[in-house]
Amino acid sequence: MKLVPALSASLLLALMGCAFPITETRLLSGRKVQPLPERIARQPLELALAGGGQLRGWRLAHPAPKATLIYFYGNGDSLWNVGRRLWSLAETYQVDVVCFDYRGNGFSDGAMGFQAMREDCLRIFDSARREGLPTLVMGYSLGSQSAAYLAANRPVDGLALLAGASSFEEVLPSFRARVPLLVRPFTRLSFDPILTAKPQARDLVATVKAPTLIIHGEADQTLPVACGDTFNEVSPAAWKRYLRLPGIGHEDLPMVSGASLPAIQAWVEAATHAGKTS
């Protein structure tokens, strides 16, 4: 059993001859969280996999949605872990949010892989699209790969890339940086061919004309800000915004606050307007 800091301090003071009462309020610690908005209804979703099993996700239904937002999360995350973020996106931007766990991850069956992610993102779009409601796609980190592939292969009404990877070449320095300095001269990295295969995300984004939003932290050490620069350079979208966030790293990229809030609001408005007029 581990002593909480308050109890450890109490024992130390007692040993020093100081009276320090160990009360229930000092011993116990907790964290109060804000309740999820009740008006956002969670609907479970399933898509059958060809080899058996199910791809599982949620639709967070806003009572008066402007659009459907398909969200792809980052590496190491899961639907359960990002649940509060999904609710916040739905509430803040007045959209339905659809998110699925990748194969072999979270609630979904199967085996995770880049080819599976590409196949599944198209099926997710086909099943999530609602008549008369614009469909937007947002990808964070690893999710940018699915978002870019989907936007290049389906008629999405808006594309948002948050802390995304533009190409293997631009991400390569971050892989090398993880090798300890002392052994770098004696280490040669090898990579699965699918990582370098064409098209890369930047090639896909270069074909997307839907309203496009790019947000990247300048202090991102996982996926360098050069990735965001490249996405901005290659995007042919008539409505395009690039938000470079000073001092922001990979894990602390804001999605419903700070400078990201008005940027995403403007993107949703531009994309929903484009979707209703196309």
From TrEMBL:
SUPFAM superfamilies: alpha/beta-Hydrolases
Domain Serine aminopeptidase S33 residue range list: 64-173
Gene3D superfamilies associated with the record: alpha/beta hydrolase
Family annotation (InterPro entries): AB_hydrolase_fold, Hydrolase_4
Domain of life: Bacteria
Matches recorded under PANTHER family: ALPHA/BETA HYDROLASE DOMAIN-CONTAINING PROTEIN (PTHR12277), PROTEIN ABHD13 (PTHR12277:SF81)
Name of protein: Serine aminopeptidase S33 domain-containing protein
Organism: Geothrix limicola
